[in-house]
Write a structure and sequence with these properties.
about 375 residues, mainly alpha, Alpha-Beta Plaits, two-stranded antiparallel sheet, globular
C-alpha cells in the first residue's frame, strides 16, 4: 500500500479537525484571529523586537517557517515515499527559510544600509508581481537598488512566463511560491475539502481572472499617476495615503482580506488553496500561460477503476476522475502540478508531463486548448 501512495489516506474523514467538525472551526477561528491582528493591529511588534527581529513581519515569517516545517513532517510521513514529493517539499522549505526569511534579514546588514533604508534591501525574490503587487509600484522601483528593480521586472515579465510555458505553473505554485508552500505543508491535512462542484469552478474562473484584471489595471494606473501630469485629485484617488485610495484598498482587500484571512483562515473549512484557486492574480496569469504551453497530465487509456482518489485529493477542485474515465489527457489552467492525483492513484493511470510542444499536438491528443 505504501508503494502505491495510499498511506495516510484512510483517516482523512475520521478526524474531526480534518472534516469540518468543532475542532476544525476552532482552528479556523484561531487563524482568522491571528491574521486580523497581524494586518490590522500592532500587538506582534513588541514580541518581535524582544526576539531580536526588526518588525512583526519577520516574526510572521519565522512563525510561517515553523508552520511549514511542522506541516512538511506531517506530509512526508504520509507521502514521502514519492521522490517528487520529497524534492518538492524540500524546495518549499528551502525557499521559505533562505529566500523569505534569512536573505531579507541579512541583506540590509551586508549592504551596510542605514537603518531607515533597511526596507529597500529586504527583498524576497520568490514573491513575484502580480502576486506581490507592491514590488512593481513606481515609487518602490525608484527607491530600491537598481539590481533589485531590474530583478523585479525580469522575474515578472521574462522568467515567470518562460518557465510557465515550458513547465506549467507548477514550477511556481507548487515549488517556489510562499503561499503554495504553506498550502503544500501546513494546509495539506485539509486538501480534500476543496469543492469540486461546477458552481465552484464557475466562481473560480470569474473571481481569479477578475483579480488578475484588477492587479494589471491598478498597476498601470499607478504608472500613469507616476509619469503623467494627472493632477492632485487623480493622485489622491489612485496612489494617495488615505485608506480609500486605490493602492490602499488593493492592499486591504486583496493582500490582507483575500490572501491572509480568507486564504489561510479558511484552510480547515474549504481547503488550502482558497486563495490560489479563486483570487491569486499570479496563478491566473500562469494558468493562461500553462494552457498555451507544454504541461499536461497524461491519462493511460482503459486503466481507471473510478476509485475517485484523484478528485478527492486534488487541492484545486479539478474532477480528475472524469478525465481518467474518458481516457482524456488534459491541461487545466487551475492545476498547480502538485502531483497528488498521480501519487494516490492505485493503478498509475496519471502522469505529469511537459509535452507536447505544439497546440496542434494538444488538439490531436484531445487536450482542450481554449477551455479554462
Amino acid at each position: 500500500m505504501d508503494l502505491q501512495g495510499q498511506n495516510g489516506l484512510m483517516t482523512t474523514f475520521r478526524e474531526g479537525w480534518r472534516s469540518r467538525k468543532a475542532s476544525a472551526w476552532l482552528i479556523a477561528l484561531a487563524l482568522l484571529a491571528f491574521y486580523t491582528d497581524l494586518y490590522f493591529f500592532d500587538h506582534l511588534t513588541e514580541p518581535a523586537k524582544a526576539l531580536g527581529l526588526r518588525s512583526k513581519w519577520f516574526l510572521y515569517s519565522a512563525l510561517y517557517s515553523v508552520a511549514m516545517i511542522g506541516g512538511a513532517v506531517y506530509y512526508l510521513r504520509r507521502h514521502g515515499n514519492a521522490r517528487y514529493n520529497r524534492y518538492r517539499i524540500a524546495t518549499n522549505l528551502g525557499v521559505q527559510l533562505v529566500l523569505a526569511f534569512l536573505l531579507p534579514f541579512v541583506m540590509p546588514l551586508l549592504a551596510g544600509a542605514p537603518e531607515d533604508d533597511y526596507w529597500k534591501y529586504e527583498y524576497f525574490a520568490a514573491s513575484i508581481w502580480p502576486l506581490d503587487h507592491y514590488k512593481l509600484h513606481p515609487s518602490i522601483l525608484r527607491a530600491v537598488p537598481l539590481v533589485l528593480a531590474l530583478t523585479t521586472v525580469a522575474l515578472a515579465f521574462l522568467v515567470a512566463p518562460l518557465l510557465g510555458f515550458f513547465f506549467g505553473k507548477r514550477w511556481y505554485c507548487s515549488w517556489v511560491c510562499g503561499c503554495g508552500g504553506l498550502a503544500n505543508t501546513f494546509g495539506d491535512p485539509w486538501r480534500h475539502l476543496t469543492a469540486t462542484s461546477t458552481a465552484s469552478w464557475k466562481f473560480e474562473k470569474v473571481a481569479v481572472h477578475s483579480v488578475m484584471f484588477l492587479a494589471i489595471v491598478s498597476t498601470l494606473l499607478l504608472f500613469v499617476d507616476a509619469f503623467a501630469d494627472t493632477g492632485e485629485t487623480f493622485h489622491a484617488v489612485i496612489a494617495g495615503g488615505e485608506w480609500w485610495s486605490m493602492k490602499s484598498l488593493y492592499g486591504y482587500v486583496v493582500g490582507a482580506l483575500l490572501a491572509g484571512l480568507v486564504g489561510v483562515g479558511f484552510y480547515p473549512l474549504f481547503g488550502p488553496r482558497v486563495w490560489c484557486r479563486n483570487f491569486c492574480p499570479m496563478a491566473a496569469l500562469l494558468g493562461l500561460t500553462q494552457k498555451l504551453g507544454r504541461f499536461r497530465i497524461r491519462v493511460k487509456p482503459d486503466m481507471c477503476i473510478s476509485c475517485g482518489n484523484c478528485t478527492t485529493y486534488c487541492e484545486m477542485g479539478i474532477d480528475v476522475r472524469s478525465y481518467a474515465q474518458s481516457n482524456e489527457s488534459f491541461t487545466r489552467a487551475a492545476c498547480v502540478g502538485c502531483g497528488m492525483c498521480a501519487h494516490v492513484c492505485p493503478r498509475g493511470v496519471l502522469k505529469l508531463e511537459n509535452a507536447p510542444t505544439l497546440q496542434e499536438d494538444k488538439a490531436r491528443q484531445r487536450l482542450p486548448v481554449v477551455n479554462l
